């Protein structure tokens, strides 16, 4: 712990991951209510080719991640409109293809040697710009989730009656998936392509067990996400382990503890949902 207090490197990493953890934890609560955990995993994997191409071209990784997510979403939307394919198959084929393409590109001799940062992040390399981006993302997510609390609640708990109240569930889901994409693009540089998913889902899954209502679950999700960041960075400094992986393991450990403390089904799930990213092909 004293090492963190003395090291500016660890202090910046701690600040970035706490802010990202709080933002991702709260966002993850709504993703799990809408049963879109697979969507989060899909987007995380689909951005890999963009990340590798950005590394090859020497441009900011955020541009590559953005391009990868947009292309993947467009391909899923096109495939999902074909009734012979269906949304589930469209997601599976697109994500598998994107991840395989990213792996092929990653094996190119021209790829920078530090490719591991694309997969597992580089929290210890956080800059002032990265922290500013994380803070901006957290503020935006908090504001948008507060603004969209009513339509999100209706889309989750009463999607049948929602249209009569002026809320279109498909559009709400699309907006949430767009916010998810933005969050993942902003977080991928610190947490990596493979570990960002853990910070989105594990704290939220624990929050659904600990919170009695949606508001409480959102607070629990943000607190547990930030807490996973603190525990992970401290463990990394004390045990000399990878920072991103330590944060991911801390988040999963919190879910295990919550599951043991509150056994049984998670509280607050909405009714039956459509398949992940089906909203991309919907016209409701």
What is this structure, in a nutshell?
With 284 residues, the chain is an all-alpha fold. The protein has helices at 2-6, 8-33, 37-46, 48-57, 61-80, 87-106, 116-120, 128-147, 149-157, 169-210, 214-239, 243-261. Residues 271-284 have low confidence and may be disordered.
Structure description:
The chain has 284 residues and is mostly helical. It has helices at 2-6, 8-33, 37-46, 48-57, 61-80, 87-106, 116-120, 128-147, 149-157, 169-210, 214-239, 243-261. It has one domain: Orthogonal Bundle (ABC transporter involved in vitamin B12 uptake, BtuC), CATH 1.10.3470.10. Helix 2 runs parallel beside helix 8 (128-147). Residues 271-284 have low confidence and may be disordered.
Rg, alpha carbons: 19 Å
State the secondary-structure class. Answer: mainly alpha
Largest sheet: none
Alpha-carbon distance between the termini?
A: 52 Å
Looking at CATH, the homologous superfamily is ABC transporter involved in vitamin B12 uptake, BtuC
Quote the CATH topology: ABC transporter involved in vitamin B12 uptake, BtuC
CATH class (first level) name: Mainly Alpha
Number of domains: 1
Oligomer: single chain
The total strand number stands at 0
Q: What overall geometry do the principal axes of the alpha carbons give? A: globular
SSE series: HHHHHHHHHHHH
What is the CATH architecture term?
Orthogonal Bundle
Low-confidence parts lasting 5 or more residues at pLDDT below 50?
271-284
**Mean pLDDT, all residues:** 79
Strand content: under 5%
Number of helices: 12
């Amino acid at each position: 712990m004293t090492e963190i207090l003395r090291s500016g490197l660890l202090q910046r990493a701690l600040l970035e991951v706490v802010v990202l953890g709080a933002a991702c934890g709260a966002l993850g609560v709504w993703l799990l209510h809408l049963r879109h955990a697979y969507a989060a995993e899909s987007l995380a994997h689909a951005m890999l080719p963009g990340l590798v191409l950005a590394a090859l071209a020497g441009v900011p990784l955020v541009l590559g991640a953005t391009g990868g997510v947009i292309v993947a979403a467009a391909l899923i939307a096109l495939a999902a409109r074909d009734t012979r394919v269906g949304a589930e198959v469209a997601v599976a084929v697109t994500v598998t293809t994107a991840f395989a393409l990213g792996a092929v590109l990653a094996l190119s001799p021209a790829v920078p040697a530090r490719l591991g940062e694309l997969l597992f992040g580089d929290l210890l390399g956080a800059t002032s710009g990265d922290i500013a981006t994380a803070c901006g993302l957290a503020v935006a997510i908090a504001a948008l989730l507060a603004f969209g609390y009513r339509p999100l609640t209706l889309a989750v708990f009463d999607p049948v009656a929602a249209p009569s109240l002026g809320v279109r569930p498909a559009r709400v889901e699309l907006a949430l998936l767009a916010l998810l994409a933005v969050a993942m693009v902003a977080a991928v540089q610190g947490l990596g392509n493979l570990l960002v998913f853990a910070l989105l889902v594990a704290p939220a899954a624990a929050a659904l067990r600990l919170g009695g209502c949606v508001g409480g679950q959102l607070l629990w999700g943000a607190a547990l996400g930030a807490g996973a960041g603190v525990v992970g960075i401290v463990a990394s400094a004390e045990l000399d382990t990878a920072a991103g992986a330590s944060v991911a393991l801390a988040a999963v450990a919190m879910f295990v503890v919550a599951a043991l403390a509150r056994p049984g089904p998670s509280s607050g799930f909405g009714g039956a949902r459509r398949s992940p990213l089906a909203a991309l092909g919907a016209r409701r």
